[in-house]
Amino acid sequence: MEISQVDAIVDRYDAAPSSLLAIMQDVQDEARYLPRDAMARIATRLDVPIARVYQMATFFESFHLEPRGKHICTVCMGTACHVRGASRLVEQLERDLDIGSGQTTADMMFTIEEVNCVGACALGPLVIVDGEYHGNMTSGSLQKVVKKMRKAETKGGTK
Ligand code: FES
User: Fold this and answer.
1) Residues with Cβ within 6 A of ligand 1?
2) What pLDDT does residue 50 have?
3) pLDDT at residue 157, as a whole number
4) Domain segments of the chain: what residues?
C-alpha cells in the first residue's frame, strides 16, 4: 500500500486522533491487512505513539498484521461446528489450496482462517467465505464454493 493512500484516508478524517480506529479499519479494508509502514504513517500523521497503534491492532481480533488473500475462507472451529466435522473441512481446504490453515496462497488469492464460535451454531459446520455464511457445509459443497471462486478469478484474469 502506498503511503499516499494512507495519507488520503487520514485526510478524510482530518487527521483526528479520535478517528484512529476508523482510519485503521479503512486502511485494512484497502490493503486487506495493516502493513507496518502504514501503521507508522498513521501514528506520525495523527501524532499518537506508534505503541498505541500497535496496541489497538493487536487488541482487536478484526485487525490483521500479516498479508491476507483476496478471498478469505474462515472455518468455524467452535464446539458445535467441530463435532460436525469442521476439522475435515479445514483439511480439505488445505489440500485444495495447497496451504496450511492461517496461510495465504503465493498468488495472494486465498487465505484459510479458523475462528471460534460465531454464534450460528445451528448452521454448523459453518464456513464463512468472503463474509458470506455457508451453513451445513459438506465436503462437496465446500469444493463447489472454492471451484466457483477460482473460476471467477480465472474469468476476471482473462478480461
Ligand atoms: S460453533 Fe460454529 S457457529 Fe457456533
Assistant:
1) 76, 78-81, 117-121, 124, 126
2) 97
3) 52
4) 3-59, 71-158
